[in-house]
């Protein structure tokens, strides 16, 4: 099967898997990450096919959509084997997906350029104008307030306690989003992150001025 057909069926697979999602892993997030990954891959001279395919599949194994991460990875593995993609490509893509998460402090860092690019694209989609929108959408879905000056940002929390404890949408910027710029792997993603980060900075400044009735 040629690469264009594989990409087409990956799109269908991702669309179906993410159709009913309200946890911030919707199909259009996946679509944006794939578009960004392609663009970064062109700039960085990486394998565009691997980047796009890994991006399209990157959230299918997410723990929020599966009973366990292992079960999710199995689903992706089965799908890849059905496409008759070279074994080395399958392993490469599975390794990328496994290493994607920011939360897993113990995870090994991304080894390949393609992995670094897909991770950058996913992190870029969490910041800037899109990142702001996703944060409020996610918070609304979880019943978190926009902001509450009596609730301080959570720091140094484990992944588990982080998930359990309630916070606010604005706190999420300090807990995670403003830290993402420093975690970009590739020069081109760093450039894009700079603009998106500055936009969030301006947004937060305006938010607090308005909160205090000063603007
Ligand atoms: P990913 O798996 O892509 O890193 P997450 O599951 O961490 O994404 O989050 C999905 C979206 O929801 C992101 O835009 C993220 O910033 C937002 N989000 C995640 N956790 C929170 C939270 N506690 N409060 C507000 N937004 C959140
Ligand atoms: Ni994602």
UniProtKB/TrEMBL annotation:
<dbReference type="Pfam" id="PF01966">
    <property type="entry name" value="HD"/>
</dbReference>
<dbReference type="InterPro" id="IPR003607">
    <property type="entry name" value="HD/PDEase_dom"/>
</dbReference>
<dbReference type="InterPro" id="IPR006674">
    <property type="entry name" value="HD_domain"/>
</dbReference>
<feature type="domain" description="HD">
    <location>
        <begin position="26"/>
        <end position="127"/>
    </location>
</feature>
<protein>
    <submittedName>
        <fullName>Phosphohydrolase</fullName>
    </submittedName>
</protein>
């Amino acid at each position: 099967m040629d690469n264009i057909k594989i990409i087409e069926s990956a799109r269908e697979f991702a669309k179906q898997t993410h159709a009913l999602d309200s946890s911030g892993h919707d199909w259009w997030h996946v679509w944006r990450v794939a578009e960004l990954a392609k663009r970064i891959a062109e700039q960085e001279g990486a394998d565009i096919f691997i980047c796009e395919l890994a991006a399209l599949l990157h959230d299918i194994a997410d723990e929020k959509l599966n009973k366990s991460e292992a079960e999710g990875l199995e689903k992706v593995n089965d799908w890849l084997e059905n496409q008759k993609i070279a074994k080395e490509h399958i392993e490469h893509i599975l390794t990328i997906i496994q290493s994607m998460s920011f939360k897993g402090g113990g995870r090994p860092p991304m080894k390949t350029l393609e992995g670094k690019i897909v991770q950058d694209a996913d992190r870029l989609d969490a910041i800037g104008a899109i990142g702001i929108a996703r944060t409020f959408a996610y918070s609304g879905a979880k019943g978190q307030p926009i902001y509450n000056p009596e609730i301080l940002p959570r720091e140094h929390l484990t992944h588990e306690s982080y998930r359990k404890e309630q916070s606010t949408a604005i706190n999420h910027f300090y807990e995670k989003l403003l830290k993402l710029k420093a975690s970009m792997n590739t020069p081109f993603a760093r450039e894009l992150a700079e603009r998106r980060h500055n936009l969030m900075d301006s947004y937060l400044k305006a938010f607090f001025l308005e909160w205090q009735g000063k603007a």
